[in-house]
Amino acid sequence: MARIVMKFGGTSVADIARIRNVARHVKREVDAGHEVAVVVSAMAGKTNELVGWTREASPMHDAREYDAVVASGEQVTAGLLAITLQNMGVHARSWQGWQIPIKTDNAHGAARILDIDGAFLIKRFGEGQVAVIAGFQGIGPDNRISTLGRGGSDTSAVAIAAAVKADRCDIYTDVDGVYTTDPRIEPKARRLAKISFEEMLEMASLGAKVLQVRSVELAMVHRVRTFVRSSFDDPDAPGMGDLLNPPGTLICDEEEIVEQQVVTGIAYAKDEAQISLRRVGDRPGVAAGIFGPLAEANINVDMIVQNISEDGKYTDMTFTVPSGDVDKALAVLERLKASIGYDVVQSEAGMSKVSVIGIGMRSHAGVAATAFKALADKSINIRAITTSEIKISILIDGPYTELAVRTLHSVYGLDKQ
Ligand code: ADP
Ligand code: ASP
Ligand code: MG
């Protein structure tokens, strides 16, 4: 007997037929004698619709009320799955975040889980009950419903798995694992049998939305054995109930991966914007004077490039922010114009960031040069570059995103291995 947390994303619970299919996956594990808790997302498209309504009601709105609205999607699917399971003879009950409780901080709209009462869920296991838990939501110190940021049900699932010391956390989605790149962009992408925590963390934070970044962090810290797998596979196909090695991708320690490639995957993030401050005085404290106030305004600055002018007196400061933050950033910079001292500020939206990720880069030279040459051969202009030990990120014009992803995927042989 094992203890398993099963999470089902939006497409997997998109309608009643899909929910029935999910219930069959759950029943398979229950019938095998396992202790099972389930985490569900809202039906596909529901959260977008709810977010849209809050904006329509008022573009600037109270984040606590945003949470009250957008958390409702998961409440519906938790109840519907519990009903479906009961109808199949499985002892199931739905639970919302506040009932367990899943305690979060006060950052409404992007809350972090602080504590989960694992004992509450362990008691349910003892009663032979399958708890069907609404993902994406918790309760803040203000006693109000909070949500965990988009894609947050992954994090709910991994945090619950850690709290109940589950043997496994299965993230069921609409692809059968983590691929070398988004299979929607590159049909030649291959499923990885295993990927290390570090690489998955980079993939997720650089745009691969298959897992929320925070869920990978939690899995890494709490050593949760996490599998990404497909809810579209036949629930009763051979091997689906394999306890130690179910079909999908295992997120694991680097040491568990025998054949490590130099490059593991390509990620991309659209909707980046570039902001340039022209002719900024080149003196100590300038960067702090620019990026401090931007951070205080909660603007996520990503790539930063600084060019010194020939006479050494001035510098151009260029950086990227998510497109949605451009107006806010420009307002901050306008306010700082006198204190920083710059000529003009220019901004350009519609950029993309493509990233090459792989632990093998630590010990291999020339990975970046290969990327630059491959993009040059396709006449793709590089706007900015950042690197770390295990990744290279390149800023390009948005319309070239797909071409760049496919080009990089192929130049590192990811479609072949
Ligand atoms: P869910 O609703 O189940 O949470 P998401 O839409 O959040 O599903 O995440 C699954 C999607 O992530 C896939 O449909 C796929 O298009 C996308 N994706 C992006 N990068 C990758 C990748 N490297 N491997 C697998 N899927 C990826
Ligand atoms: N329903 C939420 C969203 O769409 C949470 C999730 O699906 O993980 O962001
Ligand atoms: Mg998701």
Would you give an account of this structure?
The protein has 417 residues and is of the alpha/beta class. It folds into 2 domains: 3-255, Acetylglutamate kinase-like (Carbamate kinase), CATH 3.40.1160.10; 265-411, VC0802-like (2-Layer Sandwich), CATH 3.30.2130.10. It is 33% helix and 26% strand. It is built from 13 helices and 18 strands. It has helices spanning 16-31, 46-57, 63-70, 72-87, 118-126, 153-163, 197-205, 213-221, 286-296, 326-335, 337-340, 367-377, 401-411; strands at residues 3-8, 35-40, 92-95, 102-104, 113-116, 130-134, 137-139, 145-147, 168-173, 194-196, 226-230, 249-252, 265-281, 304-308, 314-322, 344-357, 384-388, 391-397. The protein has an 8-stranded mixed beta sheet with strand order 3-6-2-1-9-11-12-10, sandwiched between helices. The protein has a 6-stranded antiparallel beta sheet with strand order 14-15-13-16-18-17. Helix 1 crosses helix 4 and helix 12 crosses helix 13 (401-411). The radius of gyration is 23 Å and the shape is globular. 43% of the residues are buried. The mean pLDDT is 95. The structure holds adenosine-5'-diphosphate, aspartic acid and magnesium ion. Aspartic acid (ASP) binds at residues 9-10, 41-42, 47, 73, 135-136, 150-154. It comes from Mesorhizobium qingshengii. Residues 275-350, 356-417 form the ACT domain.
